[in-house]
Design brief:
This protein has two domains: 160 residues, no CATH class; 87 residues, Orthogonal Bundle (Arc Repressor Mutant, subunit A). 50% of the residues lie in helices and 9% in strands. It has 16 helices and seven strands. The chain starts with a strand and ends with a helix.
């Protein structure tokens, strides 16, 4: 089993939009185990389950069927290294292919593709995830705006789609939104798709590309771990600096029952405590090497109740005490 993961920037965009609309978000974020530290670390990872349940819950509570469209107004170029790679493409064709090829940098289940049909090109997105229609609608609308923004890099900032295929059914008032008003929009389709003239693919991108720096990492690993244990470590690692998680809370974040989580762990030959201990060890090493924190402060930051418990655990990991490790590894 793979745990679907997504960049925290998408939860941040929804939370920021709600704030701008005057909607209190603190309680809603906490209900979905999304702390301010997690959401504001936009390149960090959260579970996709957290994102779509948070977005769907917010839209449902506030009666905002179009929330995903509002949150999706973030320009593609502001989506981390992924956005910068798209923006640095030479032509629209190159930009869309770059988008499709690298989308898994942002979401581990991303499925985008470009389809050519006579004189028409189609920028497409495969199945949208979510447990209910409102959740899927918010995800699809956000993605739709990203796709349109990418096409506008070559077609011009005022370009409007004339043909849209959406996976969700028409929601209250959605067909009357300005984006859809003048487009031939079909709902309930198998894929999200935006049709546009084939000739646009050869258009050079518009805008001042030099205004944006190149991605920090020229070669980005575009594949999230499909292994259950590794993807679980990715989830827990984001919480380690802030909140040690129980197995029950971790299962809630992933969106599965605790017994199912235990079953997957057993199948992978792991225990929950082993993963927590491994992550604590990884976190402890730079704290011992690069900080002036004393042993008790490090122990508390890692979730131990006192220095003695931390020292015993560290000795199991490294064969020496934290103090001995610090003496040997600090210049």
């Amino acid at each position: 089993m793979e745990i679907p993961l997504v960049r925290a920037r998408y939860a941040h965009a929804f939370a920021k939009t709600l704030d701008q609309l005057g909607v209190p978000t603190d309680r809603l974020l906490r209900a979905h185990r999304l702390s301010p530290e997690l959401v504001n670390n936009q390149d960090g990872l959260i579970t996709a389950y957290q994102l779509w349940t948070f977005a769907g819950d917010a839209a449902q509570r506030e009666g905002l069927a179009e929330l995903g469209m509002l949150a999706g107004q973030v320009p593609v170029v502001e989506h981390g290294d992924f956005g910068k790679m798209v923006y640095q493409a030479f032509t629209l064709n190159d930009a869309i292919l770059t988008f499709c090829h690298n989308a898994k940098i942002e979401y581990s289940r991303a499925d985008f593709y470009l389809k050519l049909d006579n004189d028409q090109a189609w920028f497409c997105r495969g199945p949208i995830d979510g447990d209910d229609p409102m959740q899927r609608q918010q995800v699809e609308l956000y993605v739709l705006i990203m796709m349109i923004d990418t096409i506008r890099l070559g077609a011009g900032s005022h370009w409007q789609p004339t043909t849209l295929y959406l996976q969700n059914n028409d929601a209250k008032g959605l067909a009357d939104a300005p984006l859809f008003r003048h487009a031939n929009t079909r709902f309930g389709c198998k894929a999200t798709a935006i049709g546009f003239p084939l000739e646009l693919l050869g258009k050079p991108l518009q805008g001042d590309i030099a205004a944006f720096t190149k991605p920090e990492n020229e070669s980005v690993d575009i594949n999230f771990d499909s292994d259950f244990g590794n993807s679980l470590r990715r989830v827990l690692k984001n919480y380690m600096p802030f909140t040690p998680l129980s197995l029950d809370i971790t299962a809630e974040i992933i969106g599965i029952p605790p017994r199912t989580l235990q079953r997957y762990l057993k199948k992978s030959g792991l225990t929950y405590q082993e993963i927590i201990e491994q992550l604590r060890y990884e976190k402890a090493l730079p704290l011992l090497q690069d900080t002036q924190q004393n042993i008790l402060e490090i122990a508390l930051e890692l979730g131990y109740s006192d220095a003695a418990h931390f020292t015993r655990a560290f000795r199991r990991w490294a064969g020496m005490s934290p103090r001995e490790y610090r003496r040997q590894n600090v210049a």
